[in-house]
Design a protein that fits this description.
heterodimer, A: about 110 residues, mainly beta, B: mainly beta, four-stranded antiparallel sheet, about 0% helix
């Protein structure tokens, strides 16, 4: 039972344009969501997070939007840069004390073309 | 520089042998975690520990064992009982006392069992 889904395995975007990565979840008990970025043969690095009490969180070029009624979140990268090319994982958790017990999506590979 | 060190980066074993993956952190984090990544899948939680000498099973603990004798160290043993041990293993840590603290990951160990 896949509680967190990233339905697009890959995304290709031109440099300077917007990248939009999507994530859906099924468990309404999730109240904290994160995005991680992963390069090959490395561990994931934390990008940005959002609590369920918010619907938007911004950090530089990265913005995460949360639509609780649709159980959907998205990561926007503007403008996209070639260095953003990586695998992006969304993850969800229940309760702040459980933020290490994350449920991850399958990942979306983003390619930003120069 | 603070961080999480996983060793070795690549590990090869024959079927039927137990193997131990090392994970050390100098971030003074309370909690440590082991995740497994398979191709096309998200990360899945194997075991986690929030305090020394205590640990809990994650979603896929069968065939694995852990110990937490020191705050800095959380080794994972892949036993011969694990049916599909070949995978990319990621260790992570987080602070528990600061609410929603994101995970910090090591660079992983790729285990191949033949």
């Amino acid at each position: 039972d896949q509680q967190v889904k990233q339905n697009s395995p890959s995304l290709s975007v031109q440099e300077g344009r917007i990248s939009i990565l999507n994530c859906d979840y099924t468990n309404s008990m999730f109240d904290y969501f994160l995005w991680y970025k992963k390069y090959p043969a490395e561990g994931p690095t934390f990008l940005i997070s959002i609590s369920s009490i918010k619907d938007k969180n911004e950090d530089g070029r990265f913005t995460v939007f949360l639509n609780k009624s649709a159980k959907h979140l998205s990561l926007h990268i503007v403008p996209s840069q070639p260095g953003d090319s990586a695998v992006y994982f969304c993850a969800a958790a229940r309760g702040s004390s459980n933020t290490g017990k994350l449920i991850f999506g399958q990942g979306t590979t983003l390619q930003v073309k120069p | 520089d603070g961080g999480i060190t996983q060793s070795p980066k690549y590990l090869f074993r024959k079927e039927g042998q137990n193997v131990t993956l090392s994970c050390e952190q100098n971030l003074n984090h309370d909690a440590m975690y082991w995740y497994r990544q398979d191709p096309g899948q998200g990360l899945r939680l194997i075991y986690y520990s929030q305090i020394v000498n205590d640990f809990q099973k994650g979603d896929i603990a069968e065939g694995y064992s852990v110990s937490r004798e020191k705050k800095e160290s959380f080794p994972l043993t892949v036993t011969s009982a694990q049916k599909n041990p070949t995978a990319f293993y990621l260790c992570a840590s987080s602070m528990l006392s600061t609410g929603n603290s994101p995970l910090h990951f090591g660079n992983g160990t790729r285990l191949t069992v033949t």
